[in-house]
Predict the structure.
Amino acid sequence: MMKVRRYRIRTENGTGTGEKKREKLTVALITDFHNGDAAAVCAALDTCGADLIAVAGDLFLGYHFRSGGEIFSRQKNVLPLIRHCVKLAPTFFSLGNHEWIASEADLSALAEEGVVVLDNRWVRDRERGLVIGGLTSAMMTDCRKFRRKYGENAEYPHKTRHTDRMFLRTDAGWLDEFTAQEGYRILLSHHPEYWCLREPMLRRRKIDLVLSGHAHGGQIRLFGQGLYSPGQGPFPHYTGGVFRGPHGCMAVSRGTTNTASIIPRLFNPPEVVVLELV
């Protein structure tokens, strides 16, 4: 059963500007959908009252690559979810490691549906006084380099690269410009390990709110502790909840999919996270 988990985060000056200053802003966070159960996620979103929706990576299930053809015919649950999100609220999407199967044309198709695709870039929401960015997964960045070298139809060795993910690097140079902007800065960043375990060390940067997923809640939870997460290893720390740093905080979702591998989730229901910025 899909859980709706709510957190309240206090901001220094609220969001919005001038007469449109807001005392509260509600953000719905979706991660790790993996072409999953769109109906369950949509039903949960209907109860959230979101002012904006953040899809922080792994919208697709990226295990099997086929060159050519229409990806949405093979990932049939993606467009129903995205179209529902766009009807409810402005929707922003950043790229996780499973997005390696998506071509530039596929990302453009999502944008045509009304989604703001944040692929190592930021946009300004003047009405709400927000600056919203999206940091693309290092695995996606590596995949693009691979295809530039070997051709667009070359099958990216994602299993090997995923094993060696600690050696992959993000394109994080644009974050300096992002953090220099005035307004409440929200960054969609699929990998919670980017917070303080590896570069680009988001905890040190002046970002008000980082939105992450990827850890799947640790997959199996015992006594409130997840057992394993890619990028963090056994007994990971950043699997779900809100974590505070010197400049802002990171909210981590346990993801909306029951499982994306042969290991089941136990004592770890899928969730949509609702953040009230007050």
Summary: The longest strand covers residues 3-9. Helices lie at 38-45, 71-74, 78-88, 104-112, 138-150, 158-163, 175-179. The mean pLDDT is 92. The radius of gyration is 18 Å.
